[in-house]
Amino acid sequence: MALIGALIFAATVANVLRTLVIPGGYVTHTSRLIDTASIHFYHLFSKRNRQYAKKNSILSSQPAANLFLTLTTWMFTFLAATTLLLSPTGHSIFNNFREAGASLLTLGFVTTNSLWATVVDFVAGFTGLIIVALQIAYLPTLYTAYNRRETEVTLLNVRAGNPAWGPEVLRRSRIGSVMDELPILYQAWERWAAELAESHVSYPTLLRFRSPGSGASWITSLLAVMDAAAMHLSLSPSNAPMQARLVLQAGYGALRQIGRALRFNFNEDPRPDSEISVTRSDFAKAVELLGKADFPIERTVDDAYRHFVGWRVNYEELAFKLAYEIDAIPAPWAGPRRWREVEVSFPTVLNRTPENPEG
Q1: Which of 27, 148, 285, 338 gets the most CB atoms within 10 Å of its CB?
Q2: Are residues 150 and 237 in the same domain?
Q3: How many domains does the chain have?
Q4: Residue 350: pLDDT above 70?
């Protein structure tokens, strides 16, 4: 029994270290099991809400619930392992359980006067303190990464709308005469994607942290920027800056790192002529919208669509899987969600001017 307890104890220590200390994006089976259980629980209560804002408010507490369940699971596993480790003392399982709990929680109201029990009690008390300390230190790291992520997401709302959409980035840039700033936007999101890969692969629970506003999501925002860059390169190759290519490469590189960490099945090297969800008709409507804004278009719709497909096959599959996984806000060209009946309703922002006060 003591040997089984030692194996359980060692396995739990490894689980804690891989989750909280060791970087590298290894999602443990325990974390994945807890995450899957919380998904089913939360969607059981949120699926009846047809308005996304209400659904989002329910799902926003899921990361906190996951962290609490993970900590509770570790503590109960250590409790069971310590109880088994105390079995050589010859006491009943109930007495060993009480002594294990008293040691693990550093209460100390039950002890056994033997060398083996003393060693186990000291190890259990030390483990309990370390687990709580690591969890406390873990939270500031999460929230620092979360705040860095959400700053760019919030700034994108002005350029891409709510929810974010790639063609809208290009359209508003042209209407606002700020197309010269698109390379700066692409460069900022290139760095953002690199930070996303580093933080969200090392701490996968960040994937569940939702944006403060119900109209935004980190994955739909990234998808919008990548679609904008892909359309820019497809429609106006001589006008598109090098940063457009770089943000695409950084974006789908980050998505692939996250996909591997979550053990998603996806095509590592898709063909550029593969099918995508955005049809030629959808693409043509977006091009027409850009044409009305006098966006520089150098290629025909058919030719541009071929190039757009060649770019989008690199990131569409993974972006859709992640958007489905976290149940991100439904958005144009952003794939399906768990509950298709969800309605998204956001107020239309009117462009009121002295010449046109009604907008």
Answers
A1: 27
A2: yes
A3: 2
A4: no
